[in-house]
């Protein structure tokens, strides 16, 4: 079941699910009452639920769905930036996974079979986004000497988190060329020639918390 108040998105995801030949979408809903009706009638194995469903709280709706069917696996989609707090709230609601709405239909569909009760699925890029704020704080703490500028520290923390340069630039609201300029500054300041050396020297100089 797909519950999303954007009708075109819900229908596109339903078609993508049906196209797998292994999964079938039993219905789409634009509000939580409709989602509950579909769940009661068809008893789906998995529900994809928007965190903000037609102006209502999708997490409260997730709890309602799971109260009626504890075995249901819920994948929550969100259009807001991922954070540790959001991931914690989604997991606390009983959902089995979390993805941004910017994820491709293919990624959403590929995630569905991975969902398990009492487990929580978060993609690698999403995990990096959730942990990014912590990495920023760690770099700032270790950057006591003022060797790096704030933006250079931001770039370094994102690279450490596993974010590629293009995604890092998008997250920071800068161009890829600007991001490359910051990376060149990091290479120059730390006397390195590639990203592996950058991380090793940053660890050696304790720019990263705990040397990790």
Report on the architecture of this protein.
The chain has 212 residues and is α/β, with parallel strands linked by helices. It has helices spanning 7-18, 32-42, 58-68, 84-92, 105-111, 124-142, 150-160, 165-172, 176-190, 195-204, and strands at 2-3, 28-29, 46-50, 52-53, 56-57, 73-78, 97-100, 121-122. The strands form two sheets. Strands 2-1-3-6-7-8 form a six-stranded parallel beta sheet, sandwiched between helices. A two-stranded antiparallel ribbon has the order 4-5. α7 crosses α9 and α8 (165-172) crosses α9. It is elongated. It starts with a strand and ends in an 8-residue tail after the last helix. Mean pLDDT is 83; it is low at 135-142.
Topology:
Layout: E1 2-3, H1 7-18, E2 28-29, H2 32-42, E3 46-50, E4 52-53, E5 56-57, H3 58-68, E6 73-78, H4 84-92, E7 97-100, H5 105-111, E8 121-122, H6 124-142, H7 150-160, H8 165-172, H9 176-190, H10 195-204
Parallel strand pairs: 1-2, 1-3, 3-6, 6-7, 7-8
Antiparallel strand pairs: 4-5
């Amino acid at each position: 079941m797909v519950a999303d108040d954007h009708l075109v998105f819900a229908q596109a995801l339903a078609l993508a699910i049906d196209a797998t030949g292994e999964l079938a979408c039993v219905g789409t809903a634009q509000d939580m009452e409709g989602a509950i009706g579909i769940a009661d009638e068809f008893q789906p194995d998995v529900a994809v639920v928007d965190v903000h469903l037609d102006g209502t709280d999708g997490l409260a709706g997730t709890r309602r769905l799971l109260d009626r069917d504890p075995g249901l696996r819920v994948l929550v989609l969100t259009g807001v930036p991922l954070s540790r707090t959001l991931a914690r709230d989604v997991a606390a609601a009983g959902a089995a996974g979390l993805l941004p709405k910017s994820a491709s239909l293919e990624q959403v569909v590929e995630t569905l079979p991975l969902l398990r009760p009492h487990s929580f699925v978060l993609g690698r890029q999403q995990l990096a986004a959730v942990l990014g704020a912590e990495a920023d704080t760690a770099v700032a703490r270790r950057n006591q000497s003022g060797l790096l500028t704030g933006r250079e520290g931001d770039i370094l923390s994102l690279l450490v988190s596993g974010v590629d340069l293009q995604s890092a630039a998008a997250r920071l609201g800068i161009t890829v060329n600007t991001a490359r300029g910051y990376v060149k500054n990091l290479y120059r300041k730390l006397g390195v020639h590639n990203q592996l050396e950058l991380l090793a020297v940053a660890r050696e100089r304790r720019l990263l918390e705990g040397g990790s």
